[in-house]
From TrEMBL, chain A:
InterPro entries: Yip1/4-like, Yip1_dom. Keywords: Membrane, Transmembrane, Transmembrane helix. One of its GO terms (cellular component) is Golgi trans cisterna. It comes from the Eukaryota. Residues 16-167 form the Yip1 domain. It is found in: Golgi apparatus membrane; Membrane. One of its GO terms (biological process) is endoplasmic reticulum to Golgi vesicle-mediated transport. This is Protein YIPF. PANTHER family: GOLGI MEMBRANE PROTEIN YIP1, PROTEIN YIPF6. Coiled coil: none annotated. The chain crosses the membrane at residues 58-79, 91-113, 119-141, 153-172. It is a multi-pass membrane protein.
From TrEMBL, chain B:
Belongs to the TVP23 family. GO terms for cellular component: Golgi membrane. It is a multi-pass membrane protein. InterPro entries: TVP23-like (IPR008564). The keyword Membrane applies. Keywords: Membrane, Transmembrane, Transmembrane helix. Its main location: membrane. It is found in: Membrane. This is Golgi apparatus membrane protein TVP23 homolog. GO terms for biological process: protein secretion; vesicle-mediated transport.
Length: 174, 207
């Protein structure tokens, strides 16, 4: 269907970040929703009590991602950005894709072993994906700002993906 | 009502009119898109039912939350893209111009001259009933979650309020039209009701 194809096209655009109008112009929030739910599901079974069945953690991840994205969008709008509210949310949400891939890889690595080697592997993978996410979203978002304010916009994005990468890296299954 | 003698033209004409009237009346109360009507109500009501029965159905908070989120998203997509267009002929969307400015477009389908595409009253009633009552129910849930300190449900309930409220707002703006704004419409409606009540009271006082 038309909407599914649009979402798929946007995923491809994120993996190869060039300045494309598809992500910016025809925004939609389905991709971010899917990514957010899958990331939150994969971050379950972490070092929490088994009685709680990771309930609050799911809601925490959800709230962190959406609230963080909203705050970054407000920040960029207050700095005088020309991009609209939902477009910015769309870009930030879609650029979580590399980190979701990193989470998948981490879970697979942790199935194999959980020693120092696996930690180093996970660290490298997460750092690479974190860099990719930040670069991808900066490529889309920084152009809408006046040039002397680019760093002010990039820094919160850096923090946002850093927090998500931290959650992924410190994930230890029980 | 069937007349054997069809030589009289006027009788034929009146019969024809009666048939036409019956058919338009039945068209107005017939449901033209049963599948759309069903799904319009199904997703909303099942999201509410799952939220209410989550404690009983499964002990997993996550399964309930994910299923409610999925139902709410399906409902949002269905109501925005499909059922509004089919059942009441309204639609709304966001458009981004070439220079990057975004604006919201609200459209209503004009009734055609001969009333061929008469939107049925039953469908319209189902649509507006589902559209208005469900956000109100989610707002009630939001207050109850807030005051009973069940904070973990607040995320889901907020999502419900936002998604269903957005559809409600969009369709009301479509119906009302872009020129009038909602506050002036509300005040004029209240003014008309007040006037009607005072006139009725005057009539009763006189008689």
């Amino acid at each position: 269907m038309r909407d599914l194809k649009a979402v798929g096209k946007k995923f491809v655009h994120v993996m190869y970040p060039k300045k494309s109008s598809a992500l910016l112009r025809d925004w939609d929030l389905w991709g971010p929703l899917v990514l957010c739910v899958s990331l939150a599901l994969m971050l379950q079974g972490g070092s929490a009590d088994s009685k709680e069945d990771g309930g609050p953690q799911f809601a925490e991840v959800f709230v962190i991602i959406w609230f963080g994205a909203v705050v970054i969008t407000l920040n960029s709008k207050l700095l005088g950005g020309t991009i609209s509210f939902f477009q910015s949310l769309c870009v930030l949400g879609y650029c979580v894709l590399p980190l979701t891939v990193a989470m998948l890889v981490c879970r697979l690595v942790l199935l194999a072993s959980s020693g120092t080697v696996s930690f180093i592997v996970r660290l490298v993978v997460v750092m690479a994906m974190f860099g990719w996410s930040t670069l991808a979203s900066t490529a889309f978002l920084a152009d809408s700002q006046p040039p002397n304010r680019k760093a002010l916009v990039v820094y919160p994005i850096f923090l946002f993906y850093f927090v998500i990468s931290w959650m992924i890296l410190t994930f230890t299954p029980q | 009502m069937l007349r054997q003698d069809s030589n009289d033209d006027t009788e034929d004409v009146s019969l024809f009119d009666a048939d036409e009237e019956v058919s338009t009346r039945s068209k107005k109360s017939k449901i033209r898109h049963p599948v759309a009507s069903f799904f319009h109500l199904f997703f909303r009501v099942s999201a509410i039912v799952v939220y209410l029965l989550c404690e009983l159905i499964s002990s997993s908070f996550i399964a309930c939350m994910v299923s409610i989120i999925l139902l709410l998203s399906c409902d949002f997509w269905a109501v925005k893209n499909v059922t509004g267009r089919l059942m009441v002929g309204l639609r709304w969307w966001n458009q981004v111009d070439d220079d990057g400015k975004s604006h919201w477009v609200f459209e209503a389908r004009k009734a055609s001259a001969q009333g061929k595409k008469v939107s049925s009253e039953a469908e319209s009633r189902i649509f507006w009933l589902g559209l208005v009552t469900c956000p109100i129910i989610w707002v009630i849930f939001a207050f109850s979650a807030l005051f009973s300190f069940k904070v973990k449900w607040l995320a889901v309930v907020t999502m419900g309020v936002v998604l269903q409220g957005a559809n409600l707002y969009g369709y009301i703006k479509c119906k009302v039209g872009r020129r009038t704004n909602l506050t002036s419409m509300a005040t004029s409606y209240l003014g008309r009701q007040f006037l009607r009540q005072t006139v009725v009271k005057d009539d009763q006082a006189e008689s």
